Amino acid sequence: MKAIVAHSAKDLRIEEHPDAEPGEGEVGLAVAAGGICGSDLHYYQHGGFGAVRLKQPMILGHEVSARVAKIGPGVTGLEVGQLVSVSPSRPCRTCRYCQQGLHNQCLNMRFYGSAMPFPHIQGAFREALVADAVQCVPADGLSAGEAAMAEPLAVALHATRRAGDLLGKRVLVTGCGPIGVLSILAARRAGASEIVAVDLMDFTLDLAKAAGADRTINSREEPEALAAYSADKGTFDVLYECSGAVAALTAGIGALRPRGVIVQLGLGGDMSLPMMAITAKELDLRGSFRFHEEFAIGVGLMRKGLIDVKPLITHTIALPDARAAFDLAADRGRAMKVQIAFDPTLPSSSLQH
């Protein structure tokens, strides 16, 4: 079977890898669609991010849907041919954090397509994949593309849980890539009364508006637009910081009311924080990292029609054009979520789009 393998920065190859048979509690999957994430782009463009570097060839990808091809011994609740969303999160379930219910903080996490440990955890961008049955959430009624959006949606849902009560709250979202726009969908579903979205690109802001943002601000064209929200110590109850940019975080803090909540999702590296403002306004700074039970919750919300991710899937590119798909995914002026079609029967977008 073919797999998408990163060897180093800008060295992306489609290689043949051996198939494997499912064992006890496992299923064999035919991967259908896979979404290119920001971490995939970092491995492709730079060979890693921060201190995390590629030290050996690694199969990329962790946002995938698949059809069940084989069922291993002891597996129930799944059927051959069934479409599933595949969670990339494989906690050990035995370490102290797993025992506390903090599976996303597992000490022995095996998260698809991660160079954090060595040897690296190989990813899911391959035609055939063997996974634990518990990773597979039935996605009946969804398209393969929608089912592959379960992972980034779970990230936004976990952040929304970290934000706390949102009913009637005023929310600011800085950074309108896929996670930012999905956070808008999640915050609205959680009861936010007003959502303002900030980004540098009209293309992404248009999608944020379509997702339910009440107002969008292009901070490149209106660099002082958030200043109006800073009057009388601030306006917003919650900030979803999805850009990882210190300028966005600083401006957002200025617009938060006293005792507001900052949820930091963007992973742009270490930042210098305006600690005096955080202290004086008694703000809560909360990190948000990955997810666990939110994965299945997200699939359920999509299946019920309560969250619509289809507008975020701007391109679907056939596997042989994977490198071009990665280049397109890096262009925030043209693409939101670029997915790779591992199933050749899925309709593909033109690369000239």
Query: SSE order, as H and E?
Result: EEEHEEEEEHEEHHEHEHEEHEHEHEHE
Can you tell me the overall shape?
Answer: globular
CATH homologous superfamily identity of the largest domain:
Medium-chain alcohol dehydrogenases, catalytic domain
Distance between the termini: 29 Å
Relative strand content: 25-35%
| Overall pLDDT confidence | 95
How would you classify the helix and strand content by structural class?
alpha/beta
Q: Helix share of residues?
A: 10-25%
Structural domain tally: 2
Q: What's the Cα radius of gyration?
A: 20 Å
Residue runs with pLDDT of under 50 for 5 or more positions: none
Number of strands: 18
CATH domain class of the largest domain:
Alpha Beta
CATH architecture of the largest domain: Alpha-Beta Complex
In DSSP terms (H or I, runs of 4 or more residues), the helix count works out at 10
| Main beta sheet strand tally, sense and closure | 7 strands, mixed
Report the CATH topology name of the largest domain: Quinone Oxidoreductase, Chain A, domain 1
Write down the oligomeric state: single chain
InterPro entries: ADH-like_C, ADH-like_N, GroES-like_sf, NAD(P)-bd_dom_sf
GO molecular function: metal ion binding; oxidoreductase activity
Keywords: Metal-binding, NAD, Oxidoreductase, Plasmid, Zinc
Organism: Azospirillum humicireducens
